[in-house]
UniProtKB/TrEMBL annotation:
It is a single-pass type I membrane protein. The keyword Transmembrane applies. It is found in: Membrane. This is Uncharacterized protein. SUPFAM superfamilies: RNI-like. Pfam families: LRR_1 (PF00560), LRR_6 (PF13516). GO terms for cellular component: membrane. The keyword Transmembrane helix applies. Keywords: Glycoprotein, Leucine-rich repeat, Membrane, Repeat, Signal, Transmembrane, Transmembrane helix. Gene3D superfamilies: Ribonuclease Inhibitor.
C-alpha cells in the first residue's frame, strides 16, 4: 500500500471510529449464510427494509416462515436462491413490501392459493417467474387486487387457462410491464 493508501485508511478509520464504537455493543454483528441453511437470527433484524438473498444455494429448503416477521421490509429478493416447496402464505404479513422476487428457484417452488397476495397492497414490482401457479385457479383475481402494481413477471408459471380464454376486466391501471412468456 502506498502513502496515499495509508492516509485514506487512517482518514476513514478516524471518520468512522465513533460510528463503529457506538454500534459495537450489538450482539449480532455478522450473518453467516452457509450453504443449505439460514440462521433464524435474521428474524431479529426488525428494522430491516431491504433483504436480498438471491443467488445463494439453500439446497432446496423451504422459504423460512420467520421472514414474514420482518414487518418493515420494503424489498425482498429470494430469486435463484435454491428454495423449493410451497411458498409460505405468511409472506402476506409483509404489508410494507413494494418489491417481491420469488423467481427461478431451480429446485421448484409452487403456490396453490394466492389469497395472501392482496394484503401486499403497496407492491409495485412482483416477479414469480418459474413458480408453479398451475393450481392457483384464482391467480388473476388476486393479482388484480394489487392497486400499485407496475411490473409483473409471470413467465413459465403454467398459466395455460388464462391464455386460452378472454382476459377478464383488469384493475391494473398502473401496470407498465407484463411478462407472461412461456405459459
Amino acid at each position: 500500500m502506498n502513502d496515499m493508501g495509508y492516509y485514506m485508511y487512517d482518514y476513514m478509520y478516524e471518520y468512522y471510529s465513533d460510528y463503529i464504537d457506538y454500534y459495537s455493543d450489538y450482539k449480532s454483528r455478522s450473518l453467516s449464510l452457509s450453504v443449505g441453511e439460514m440462521s433464524s437470527s435474521l428474524a431479529t433484524l426488525q428494522h430491516l427494509r431491504y433483504l436480498d438473498l438471491s443467488w445463494n444455494d439453500f439446497n432446496g429448503t423451504s422459504i423460512p416462515v420467520y421472514l414474514s416477521s420482518l414487518k418493515n421490509l420494503r424489498y425482498l429478493n429470494l430469486s435463484r436462491a435454491g428454495f423449493s416447496g410451497r411458498i409460505p402464505s405468511q409472506l402476506g404479513n409483509l404489508s410494507k413490501l413494494q418489491y417481491l422476487d420469488l423467481s427461478q428457484n431451480y429446485y421448484g417452488s409452487y403456490i396453490v392459493d394466492l389469497a395472501w397476495l392482496p394484503r401486499l397492497s403497496l407492491l409495485s414490482d412482483l416477479d414469480m417467474s418459474y413458480v408453479d401457479l398451475s393450481s392457483a385457479r384464482d391467480w388473476f383475481q388476486r393479482v388484480n387486487m394489487l392497486p400499485s402494481l407496475k411490473v409483473l413477471h409471470l413467465s413459465e408459471c403454467g398459466l395455460n387457462s388464462i391464455l386460452s380464454g378472454s382476459i377478464p376486466h383488469s384493475n391494473l391501471t398502473h401496470l407498465e410491464v407484463l411478462d407472461m412468456s412461456g405459459n
